[in-house]
């Protein structure tokens, strides 16, 4: 609750962070590094948790959910982490919310052929609208 959030790609600043998410080019849960932006990264829920059926490549959001989702849900619900309520909710939240974020962030199309409709109001799209364009000379993310 007393964490300071630092938004940077500066490797020196990242090295001093306790947890790094979605930047840094490193996936190392032992050091709390949760980035999926390496060519060699292929992890899915199934590869990290063989008891789960989903094979969609994880985004950084999915990595954090994979490693901490059950613990967070258990704390919020006052239920055991390995109990049936937490397990069922964890699975439903991944299948109906987080998996979409993983797929969109990794460029996985919602259909094998031509999509029947546009997904214009997804969570990922809304977050993306808050970020500056990649070629915008003003990259200050704090300017609204």
Automatic annotation (TrEMBL):
Q: Pfam families given for it?
A: MYG1_exonuc
One Gene Ontology cellular component: cytoplasm
Where does the source fall among the domains of life?
A: Eukaryota
The entry assigns this protein to a family as follows:
Belongs to the MYG1 family.
What is the protein name for this chain? MYG1 protein
Q: What's the source species for this entry?
A: Dicaeum eximium
């Amino acid at each position: 609750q007393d964490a300071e959030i630092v938004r940077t790609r500066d490797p020196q600043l990242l090295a001093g962070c306790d947890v790094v998410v979605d930047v840094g080019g490193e996936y190392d849960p032992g050091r709390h590094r949760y980035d999926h932006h390496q060519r060699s990264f292929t992890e899915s829920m199934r590869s990290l948790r063989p008891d789960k059926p989903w094979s969609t490549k994880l985004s950084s959001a999915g990595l954090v959910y994979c490693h901490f989702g059950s613990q967070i849900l258990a704390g919020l619900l006052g239920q055991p982490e390995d109990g049936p309520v937490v397990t069922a909710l964890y699975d439903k939240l991944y299948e109906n919310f987080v998996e979409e974020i993983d797929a969109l962030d990794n460029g996985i199309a919602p259909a094998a052929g031509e999509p029947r409709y546009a997904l214009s109001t997804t969570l990922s799209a809304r977050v993306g609208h808050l970020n500056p364009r990649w070629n915008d000379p003003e990259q200050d993310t704090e300017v609204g």
